[in-house]
TrEMBL record:
Entries under Pfam families matching the protein: RVT_2
Domain of life: Eukaryota
Annotated ranges, domain Reverse transcriptase Ty1/copia-type: 3-143
Name of this chain's protein: Reverse transcriptase Ty1/copia-type domain-containing protein
Length: 275
């Protein structure tokens, strides 16, 4: 186990550190674990928002969100797993710990939490919709196809089963910001894009220089830490390009040539693209 600081984007668009104990998943000797999850893509969120906005009598209160508090720590383990206590604990070197709940860093934690949450939704009459990652609750009245209304009561139902933070208006989901009003729902990645580079660098006319060619790159390879930073930055830009910034698509695709083995020059060129 390790104490890890992770950099996260908060609701104000600022990056902040969050600290937690995590499992060294890279040291897990188990093989063949089922780990695939069923996340909700942003385009499905936008589809549901459009459906809500088009409904009769729509009101912004129809759309609210809750953030599950320390999600993985609420899901029970499905397998017997022992871990070495952290060095800071007196048990280190003397005993192993048996995990009762999932922990961050454990390979199967995302899937186990997903199943845990789904079991609670099913308990209260929710079911999977045809859209991946979207669940809905069908009306018990045969003649009613869909019901519209404030979301708070449904969220409170979930909050009685799963520990969550306070109910909030929809503001941001996986890098996309939302502004919900009576007549429109505005979707934007401006906050996400700004967070990638807050150094105030003036945009370049040609962010990818003509010299950026892999076969001509003879610069030194990056170390492990720099490689991780390169891959993370490239991934963030690629995500941005795929949804709201197609002008970045060529640059991110070009720089992907170096993803497996980035170099000093490649990192410099990628930073030009970020700026």
């Amino acid at each position: 186990m390790l104490w890890v600081d992770t950099l996260k984007l908060n609701d104000e668009g600022e990056r902040e550190f969050k600290s937690r104990w995590v499992i060294r998943g890279d040291k897990d000797p188990r093989k063949g674990l089922e780990v695939a999850t069923d996340p909700c893509p942003p385009e499905n969120i936008r589809f549901m928002l459009l459906a809500a906005l088009s409904s009769t009598g729509f009101d912004p209160s129809f759309i609210s969100t809750i953030d599950v508090d320390n999600a993985f720590l609420q899901a029970p383990m499905s397998d017997t797993v022992y871990v070495i206590p952290p060095k800071e604990h007196p048990d280190h070197g003397k005993a192993f710990w048996l995990l009762q709940k999932c922990m961050y860093g454990l390979t199967e934690s995302p899937l186990l939490f997903q199943r845990y949450l789904e079991s609670k939704l099913i308990k209260h009459g929710w079911g999977k919709s045809p859209l991946r990652g979207i669940w809905w609750k069908l009306s018990k009245e045969a003649e009613v196809v869909a019901l519209n209304g404030p979301a708070a009561s449904h969220l409170q139902e979930i909050m009685r089963e799963v520990e969550c933070k306070e109910i909030q208006p929809l503001q941001r989901y996986v890098g996309v910001s939302y502004d919900v009003s009576q007549d429109e729902i505005w979707c934007s990645q401006e906050m996400y894009a700004s967070s990638l580079n807050d150094r105030g660098v003036r945009p370049l006319v040609n962010p990818i220089p003509d010299a950026a060619r892999k076969q001509a790159d003879t610069s030194l390879p990056l170390n492990k830490k720099e490689t991780k930073a390169f891959q993370q930055s490239l991934g963030e830009l690629s995500y941005l390009a795929s949804f709201t910034r197609p002008d970045l698509a060529y640059g991110t695709s070009h720089m992907a040539q170096w993803n497996a083995a980035p170099t000093v020059n490649a990192f410099a060129w990628l930073q030009r693209l970020v700026s």
